[in-house]
Amino acid sequence: MSPSGFPVFSTASARVRSAVPNPPFERMNIVTKELIPDRTEDTISVALVFNDDGASKVAEGKMLTSRVMDGVYCVEYQDPEGGAKKGAHNAGRNVHGDVTHLQLIVEGGFHVGIGRDLTPHHFTAPILVAFTDADGGGHDSEVDHGGCKRVYMQRKGHLTRDMFLCD
User: Fold this and answer.
1) How far apart (Å, rounded) are the C-alpha atoms in residues 39 and 10?
2) Are 133 and 91 in contact (CB under 8 A)?
3) Which of 1, 58, 119, 157 gives the lowest tally of CB atoms within 10 Å of its CB?
């Protein structure tokens, strides 16, 4: 419950409401007398590896966590050995059609070769790397020598650049 006695709908609103008694954005529908929930949402830093004109590219920004996680159907903890390499490959489709392969880096990091010449791009915790480059030349990868702890997920549908939030 918030200081004014209304139920709290999100962690973000709980932080704000505990600091400010009776904030002005707490609203109630006059007709139904129901509290209108706070739509504040958490965001996550995302590096999106996508295909553009036959070559993989990377774009980074923030997305709504709820939008990224919507459609996740497979979650697996991974602790690949330091120095492990995987040659050029794509973020392939499966029985669900287009999927986004997500890797939430918890500790350590890895390099991903991007573009036609597979230029190395380094990702370290904390970031979510999203792979949607199902077509084209793909990307390669190499785990840092110190290793990498990550959570691998598959999500139905592709995340796209238009899902990035404006600053």
Assistant:
1) 8
2) yes
3) 1
